[in-house]
């Protein structure tokens, strides 16, 4: 697959709001695009999501591929997989990044399998490094509950695909003076799209602040003693 130098981000939205992990992933895409002298594009799927597309431009996306349809209001595994795969095959980006949350971890491997490329999951960092004289994308992944750090690079198949853990990158600053292109993609549902449907998404409220959202984290081990 020949490629262009675009770095793509799947911009997940729920109930008309962009997910923080997607904006963090956009921040990482902006870093990588500078390293490869490329452009950043977001893929946004949902219902009546034009305002969110403009918001993505304000966060730094130079281009947004917008797929808007009432049937796509909630995450639909088959439909979203087909839409993103067909966009990849048509425009051939260099990289495609997803947030490593419950939906991103369902969608990313399905897309990777469909376009027959490699996927690295739960990355704590992504950066360009020189390997054998060539600049390549390298993923850093904690293994064995953090007891090992693994680095993985991609072969020549494109796009390089990865899921980025929450908190692994900074969310870019919002700047409403930024300008970018919004490309509206026509959606026609297929029979396969509708075989599996998400009817409703119910968000469970956490009992406490997630670790990645805490301002201060206090931890202890076997060596902790009282004074």
Spans of at least 5 consecutive residues with low confidence: none
Secondary-structure element order, N to C: EEEHEHEHEHEEEEEE
How is the CATH topology named?
Answer: Rossmann fold
Spatial sequence of strands, sheet with the most strands = 7-11-6-1-4-5-12
Largest sheet: 7 strands, parallel
SS-derived structural category: alpha/beta
Mean pLDDT: 89
CATH superfamily: HUPs
Give helix % range: 10-25%
Overall spatial form? globular
Percent in strands:
25-35%
Distance between the termini: 63 Å
How many domains make up the coordinates? Answer: 1
List the helices and strands and how they pair.
Layout: E1 6-11, E2 13-14, E3 17-18, H1 20-35, E4 39-46, H2 50-58, E5 63-68, H3 77-91, E6 95-99, H4 104-115, E7 119-123, E8 125-131, E9 134-143, E10 148-153, E11 160-164, E12 181-184
Parallel strand pairs: 1-4, 1-6, 4-5, 5-12, 6-11, 7-11
Antiparallel strand pairs: 2-3, 8-9, 9-10
Helix pairs in contact: 3-4
How is this structure best described in words?
The protein is an alpha/beta fold and 227 residues long. Helix content is 23%, strand content 29%. It has four helices and twelve strands; from the N terminus they run βββαβαβαβαββββββ. The strands form three sheets. Strands 7-11-6-1-4-5-12 form a seven-stranded parallel β-sheet, sandwiched between helices. A three-stranded antiparallel β-sheet has the order 8-9-10.
